[in-house]
Amino acid sequence: MKTHDTTRRSPDARETPSKAEIRTDLLVIGAGAGGLSAAYGGSQMGADVTLLEGHVMGGDCLNFGCVPSKALIAAGKHAHAMRTGASYGVTPVAPEISYADAKRHVHHAIATIAPVDSQERFEKLGVRVIREFGRFVDKDTVETDTYRITARRIVIATGSAPLVPPIPGIEDVSYLTNETLFDLMERPEHLLIIGGGPIGMEMAQAHIRLGSKVTVIESGRALAQDDPELTEIVVARLRAEGVEIVEHAKAERISGRDDAITVHTGQGDRTGTHLLLAVGRRPNIDTLNLDAAGIEHDRSIKVDDGLRTTNRRVFAVGDVAGRLQFTHVAGYHGATVLRPILFGLRAKARTDHLPWVTFTDPELAQAGMTEAQAREKHGGKLEVLRFPYRENDRAVADGETGGLIKVMVVRGRPVGASIVGARAGELIGLWSLVLANRLKIGAVAAMVAPYPTLGEISKRAAGQYYVPRLFESAAVKKTVRLVQKWLP
Fold first, then answer.
1. Which residues bind NAD(+) (predicted)?
2. Residue pLDDT, tens place only, 38-52
3. What is 355-471's CATH superfamily?
């Protein structure tokens, strides 16, 4: 460990106990995806790194978000398969579900992954890990209960917390958020979910498959951040499985007791045994004392294209930076800021290639622009390539033909891709690669995908670009006929 501690008296020793002083190259506040990425990269490339985390290592994703939700979704998928085997020659049966055991699977997944994000691992990598909360006292100094840390550069990666909306009556009932849902060991008889975004819809399908009754209440359109043509397929599937989805219904008031909670909306009242709030996130900045460091903020921290705050020594990454709130985006941010921090070089956090996935069944994935966004920006220059899952041989063999890919292309270069269907989250990675490297559509069309795989869907979609240019072109056909006459 190259950092060294010295102890000196506080400037006002009569009122403030002496604190151990640390001077470091890089101070990272928050041990979620963005913070761990910055701490790991900085340490491995020779910087003197200190990491502050007052809560849990691994942040929201490992402990309350991505990992536990996908583990619960997997449990629900197994239960659903037992009910739906008839078309495959398998007699459907009603599964015997232990909700508590499903949650034990969730906790096992968390515990298995936790060592990768652990304090012990990062200390072995040379990072000083301090398990305390910190607050700024000036432009380059952060204090905890026992330390005063001065750093050349600071990365704020404190993430976000569930937003609790100010609905009248909400303070009078018990409610769940993603931070408490996965500790619930008794299956909800009827789960009310306020919020029809990715978290709300994923948990709705997982719980209906695990035997709960589920109602989703959404003030606008469900999954509103995605292409409406594609989200309609997801919403229809959830409704077919028994989820009640009430759109354009604002939660106006909440009443009742803990085992009979009523959400009052303009479209009628809905009563259930449990209430899950899934209406968004709020950045964790309230206790950082940002003003002392000259860092401007409102709901989130103000940053430039390089994720630098109004204090040139300080960067903000992930949810606190007010950009897309996804774990992989936070990790990308954490890696991006290392360029100026370690080498003094310029860096820009792009958004045009970033993907996201809603892990419903079917999955819903997006990279770059949606069709609506592309039409607004590019107008008549836009071409939309489409290919349905039902024309893919692997999808037919697997009985998963309900899906579609759309690729937005401008002058031969993709600007976005939207996919709904089986393993859409795996397929979208190719299009993120294309967008990140600004490749032309021909790069995907030239790809050889193994047969039979869903990967052929992307290749076939790319091939649609050439159908009118080659196979439907009278000039091309005329040229071929002429060449054929002259060939020996």
1. 195-202, 218, 280
2. 999 999 999 999 999
3. FAD/NAD-linked reductase, C-terminal dimerisation domain (3.30.390.30)
